[in-house]
């Protein structure tokens, strides 16, 4: 099982191939935003990698980050927990002014079909 270390929260073992956004909310207990429900469109689920950043990303993540001109962050809804990683959560419900974090993301990456590219 991969180890997920989250600044300010500690280290946790997470299910291999689980979505990072779900590991953060379900295992770690972070109030991680995911306004689009994990579809990779809104960038509210941004995290910064301290170490262990995956070398690939979904086409949706790359297109969204490029369109929104986001640099130095990844979308937790588009990252799978396949290796040990250490992250900093930068997009939480607390202090956001939003009513809720967003609809629960599916267990599987969305949108389908998932295509991968180098980051």
Report what the structure shows.
- There is one protein chain.
- The chain is an alpha+beta fold.
- The chain is 15% helix and 26% strand.
- β1 and β2 form a beta hairpin.
- The model has no long low-confidence stretch (mean pLDDT 97).
Keywords:
119 residues, alpha+beta, Ubiquitin-like (UB roll), five-stranded mixed β-sheet, two-stranded antiparallel sheet, 9 strands, globular
Estimated radius of gyration: 13 Å
**CATH topology name:** Ubiquitin-like (UB roll)
What is the number of strand segments?
Answer: 9
Strand order of the largest sheet: 2-1-8-4-6
Write the layout of secondary structure elements.
Elements: E1 3-6, E2 10-13, E3 18-19, H1 20-28, E4 46-51, E5 56-58, H2 59-67, E6 74-75, E7 80-81, E8 85-89, E9 116-118
Parallel strand pairs: 1-8
Antiparallel strand pairs: 1-2, 3-7, 4-6, 4-8, 5-9
Report a brief summary of the structure.
The protein is α+β, with helices and mostly antiparallel strands and 119 residues long. It is built from two helices and nine strands; from the N terminus they run βββαββαββββ.
